[in-house]
Amino acid sequence: MIEHKVRVRRSADDFPQSEHLAQKIAEVAVDPVEVPADTAEMIINRIIDNAAVSAASAMRRPVTTARAQALAHPASPGATVFGVSGRVSPEWAAWANGVAVRELDFHDTFLAAEYSHPGDNIPALVAVAQHKGCSGKDLIRGLATAYEIQIDLVRGISLHKHKIDHVAHLGPSVAAGIGTMLGLDIETIYQAVGQALHLTTATRQSRKGLISSWKAFAPAHAGKIGIEAVDRAMRGEGAPAPIYEGEDGVIAWLLDGPDAEYTVPLPGPGEPKRAILDSYTKEHSAEYQSQAPIDLARRLRTRIPNLDDIESIVLHTSNHTHVVIGTGSNDPQKFDPGASRETLDHSVMYIFAVALQDGTWHHEASYAPERANRPDTIELWRKISTVEDPEWTRRYHSEDPNEKAFGARAVITMKNGDVIIDELAVADAHPLGARPFGREQYTAKFAALAEGIVDADEQRRFLAVAANLANLSGDELAGLNVSVLPNVLDKAPILPEGIF
């Protein structure tokens, strides 16, 4: 990997385009290096993972809204919308499918200086691939780039520190990945990356306080913007430049300011794109930093005969977990039984309480209003707090994959004074966890979430198509869509009319 130093430059400085971070990203995108077999295998796993969570979210209102908007934009050849027949303009397919993927907070993640869900790249690239007749091999190459760029930006540049939403790293990765997939030249990709970044910077209020359905729409919007940016760049239109380093650019005014310097690692020429292998999926439908606490709670409940005897629970964890989903956020909504699903998803106190009581976690039942309003749950929930532990923060940011951790140490004080302590560094499904996810686990997750939503024969058909991705022709990429049973879609919410 080449470590690129990125800092603000005055307009009067001699700063050639060859030194711009957007140019370095474009150079990675055009590198003809072959995709390693394990990278290609994991790309297929993540396509299956996305389909699984899309099936589970197919009837939810935000997904229904996005689907209705997309179906109002038919196109030929177009791209498919998850669950239904017909084709729509690719940016709208990316929009609908991106919301379906993101709605339940149940797909892959990478955490470092910034947060990310790199599987958000998949809907945009699949849509463009279907519309442009790309091969499965082209799609694999594009997704290897998209994952690489987003994850490498996440390693080097913190956005949340300045309350900028993490999808600002997604716009450039989508643009770069599409550039690889379509075989575009460096200049076109450079301009598309700049446009995509410029248009996908937004505040983190979408993930603060009372969290709304926009949390699911935000990455879909970034994917849609990324597609549109590439389209304009292909037609010869330019971008603000230098977008990262400019005197009035992103770093100077949205991030650490004119004196900042970031280090962004990117593959050198001929170096394989393997970043996807450093990311990890979710076994539970909850914010990633609560994955290990859920597994820890399930393990701890066998050591506590009566949960009513608990006096307090303190979760010692990283700064990220403490301030984003813990009591360090200072969000009273995280203790509100009437809060939205999206808010409860970002409350490790609620999540730990329910997992401790139930010994399991379910993407619907664990968030149901009647579940959140159970008196014994509310009582336990309000006994839980988080504190930052510098060692957990250090491990969160560690570059050593063998010690990088997203877990917590639970200190449970009983009413009789006894103290029960246990900790878990990584979730069971993590590559270093008790039950790492491989193809078998991704397939099982798909089967479980698609049960009763996708016909068994359709499930088998989709899995066979996905497994054969490297050999698919452009016409065959439509097979990556999954048909949802009509009687299931009939249960989707009835929406008021919009503009389209």
Automatic annotation (TrEMBL):
<comment type="pathway">
    <text>Carbohydrate metabolism; tricarboxylic acid cycle; isocitrate from oxaloacetate: step 1/2.</text>
</comment>
<comment type="subunit">
    <text>Monomer.</text>
</comment>
<dbReference type="InterPro" id="IPR045336">
    <property type="entry name" value="MmgE_PrpD_N"/>
</dbReference>
<dbReference type="GO" id="GO:0006099">
    <property type="term" value="P:tricarboxylic acid cycle"/>
</dbReference>
<dbReference type="InterPro" id="IPR005656">
    <property type="entry name" value="MmgE_PrpD"/>
</dbReference>
<dbReference type="InterPro" id="IPR042183">
    <property type="entry name" value="MmgE/PrpD_sf_1"/>
</dbReference>
<dbReference type="Pfam" id="PF19305">
    <property type="entry name" value="MmgE_PrpD_C"/>
</dbReference>
<dbReference type="GO" id="GO:0003994">
    <property type="term" value="F:aconitate hydratase activity"/>
</dbReference>
<dbReference type="InterPro" id="IPR036148">
    <property type="entry name" value="MmgE/PrpD_sf"/>
</dbReference>
<dbReference type="InterPro" id="IPR053420">
    <property type="entry name" value="2-Methylcitrate_Dehydratase"/>
</dbReference>
<dbReference type="InterPro" id="IPR045337">
    <property type="entry name" value="MmgE_PrpD_C"/>
</dbReference>
<comment type="similarity">
    <text>Belongs to the PrpD family.</text>
</comment>
<feature type="domain" description="MmgE/PrpD C-terminal">
    <location>
        <begin position="284"/>
        <end position="470"/>
    </location>
</feature>
<dbReference type="Pfam" id="PF03972">
    <property type="entry name" value="MmgE_PrpD_N"/>
</dbReference>
<keyword id="KW-0456">Lyase</keyword>
<dbReference type="GO" id="GO:0019541">
    <property type="term" value="P:propionate metabolic process"/>
</dbReference>
<feature type="domain" description="MmgE/PrpD N-terminal">
    <location>
        <begin position="19"/>
        <end position="262"/>
    </location>
</feature>
<dbReference type="GO" id="GO:0047547">
    <property type="term" value="F:2-methylcitrate dehydratase activity"/>
</dbReference>
<keyword id="KW-0816">Tricarboxylic acid cycle</keyword>
<dbReference type="InterPro" id="IPR042188">
    <property type="entry name" value="MmgE/PrpD_sf_2"/>
</dbReference>
<protein>
    <recommendedName>
        <fullName>Aconitate hydratase</fullName>
        <ecNumber>4.2.1.3</ecNumber>
        <ecNumber>4.2.1.79</ecNumber>
    </recommendedName>
</protein>
<comment type="pathway">
    <text>Organic acid metabolism; propanoate degradation.</text>
</comment>
